[in-house]
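[audit] Reproducing an earlier prediction to check determinism. Same input, same settings, fresh worker. If the tokens differ from the archived copy the diff job will pick it up downstream; this log only records the rerun itself.
[audit] input (840 residues):
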Amino acid sequence: MKKMRHFTLKLAGTAVLGLLLTACETTGGTQSAKTLPAVIDRDPSVPIWRPNQVPVPLPAVNLTSGEVRTVSLDGCVPGQIATVKVDAVEGDQSLVVSMLEPTILELSAPRGTTGDGVVHLEIESIDGVESEVGFPVRWSPKPEVEFTFRTLTPEETHNVYVAGTFNGWNSSADRLTDEDGDGTYTGILMIAPGTYAYKYVVDGHWMLDPGNTKVLEEGGISNSRLDVAGSGGVAQEPLHISVLPANTPGIGSQGGFMVDLAAGARLEPSSTNLFVNNKPVEASGYQINPVTGKISLNIPPDSWGSQQFVSVTVTDSTGRTGSLVAPFDFADAPRSPRDEVIYYAVVDRFIDGDASLNDPVNDPDVAPIANYMGGDFAGLKKAINEGYFNDLGASLIWVSPVNKQPDKAYKDALPPHRKFTGYHGYWPVSNTETNERYGSMADLRNVVSAAHQHGVAVILDYVSNHVHEDNPILKEHPDWIVPLELPNGQKNIRQFDAHPFTTWFDEFLPSLDYEHHPEVIDFMSDNAVWWLEQTGADGFRHDAVKHVPTPFWRTLTQKLKDKIIHPEHKGLYQVGETISSRGTINEFIGPDMLDGQFDFPLLWVARDVLALESQPMSKLETGVMESARDYPIYATMSPLIGNHDTPRFMAFADGDLHGGDDTLAKEMAFNNPPKVDNAKSYDKIQLGMAFLMTIPGAPLIYYGDEIGMTGAHDPDNRRMFIPRDHWNKNNKRTFDVVSQWAKRRAESVALRRGTFEPLYSDDERMVFARVAPEEVVVVALSRAPLDNSVTIPLPKAWGEPKTFEILALNNLDDKAATLRNGTLVLRDGQYSAGMWRFTW
């Protein structure tokens, strides 16, 4: 017998997203499908997000004995820090703790020792609010690893570095030296036990280690493999800790944790520490079962807010340790950027709403795909008011750069030297004017206002690395740019890795000199704040982040706090573009810099696994786990499967492109633009979108991907959006699938904020859970070519769920999953995706 239920999700202020769900309480695998029409009513005067008052969780610090480590306390308590006092260090007293700056703590432990402790701090904010916080520290010796690189041309070799996952792929941090001048470069690093990828960087050129035959593949890129063993010859894995939802066996109504213990091992209660928002939890606030490894939370209601991070560190009877920091949010947590689905609209290529503004550059050498096509602010506003983004389930629009652009075309400095216009917005000739081909500043304000009325946030694309050569600020301050030529006379154009902070994108796009001119930092950060003040937008997507030094990001973020966030009581979101490794991406994330960045390393894996099918599905699971491990837990990262700088997902899925050959993709854009030939390619992108909507982060939909548009490299991947009344059946079905999964995400606290728990993966499948205190959502993704089944034992700690309901299905029927005695049996199909909610 089906039971009708009506659910509501609070968005902001008076905002309510009405969700009419047809659901049934089930056991033993009986389920039913659901429909989800959405109606949004929002007061536009209420900010989309409130300022983040949740402290940034301090990490569980793991030190090498003898190493000096600094910990930033920025954001670890609400408000700006005035004073910090080290109150106590529990445990091993050999740890040395001292303050370097008002918000920088320095930690060190004697070389060769092993120990652990908890650092307790007393912090007072500038508002006089006092807080007591703490975090655990563990230290032990790390093995020494010697790197050796030999060159046959020592007279032509000058600098050799080693870069890898152990140092965040920093190409200038660890230099090897040639003491004898015989061409043999060596260096010793202390590296924790584990497996790493690395390369040598020889005079700016990256290469595999010629003396190492072991290789690691990541995103289609080959790296040398390094295996570092512990003192016993085998790297000791840390204890795995997972979140348990409320009311599972042995766990109370607030949820808890499960520590995976080896046979015969026990938890050591005296070495177990829990923190909620950096505040130590009293022993009465949790219960430990040393035998089963379960930790049940029992925190007094008055100290348990609607949004928090819980940190737990444990030690077992064999000396193995483990730590976890997890978001522990309930469904009533305030709306924040981590709840959003981002939609990237390239203004000129989206919708032509005002034909009177159409004015392509008159230059016969410019191909039509490299010229203006007529999209504008009016078209964007039209889509908002017609409910396109609400229908799709997108709740945040990233608008491409809106600055005025040059009125003529420019030749690319690199072969084959084609001409392009500034239709894309990344060549700013003014810091205060909008592109007249898009509309006026008033038109842009109307776009933001219309979006807010529909419950949708808006972020602007801000270009801080460079300006166009015709920008007036260069006439006033010609010394504000870095030289185009390097000391050796070579032009410094697109040398992104060798000269990240000085390279030019082209000869007519000079890079700003932030390092030698602090006034540039002030000017550009003030200008960014001005754009938000003028438009009412909700934050920024920042272009080319890794090419702008960190002092700019810190200055801008502090000004946003001082001028908008605190005075207007308005939350903002800053997400960056850093096309690099996770280590480099992390360098620009923090409470004093960016809130998050786009996850390009995961994009490369997703392309290989889901579009090209050149890697197993298990590689996709590994990619998600690496992102969850490497990025800060408080960051709002954005996973994606494509954007304006990469060929379209569909071009790979349809077999038109086969990897990272940019030359082929660029030539195809002008001479042989791809079209979709295989209907199965739409199934692939639907699977890709289901993946994005169910993993951690604020997923990005690149305009047109929601209907399966294709395209080679830019500008072909920036074709004019296909109007809704011109969609074919595959466009419509893809939109419906993406919409279904995006809306399911909106109503699930587990999908938006829960932890990621892998359950099963093989060559063709990936099954995982998203776990929050109130619910567990299980997701199954498959590209298997045959209709077959797989049996997956669920974690024993879950026990038997009381309810089991379908949230979304694609290329599956409602009998695709059955649950019997703690075992989930899944019957999948090719390019299928299923999602089920479990409650206890």
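[audit] rerun output stored. Observation attached for the diff report: The radius of gyration is 27 Å.
[audit] end
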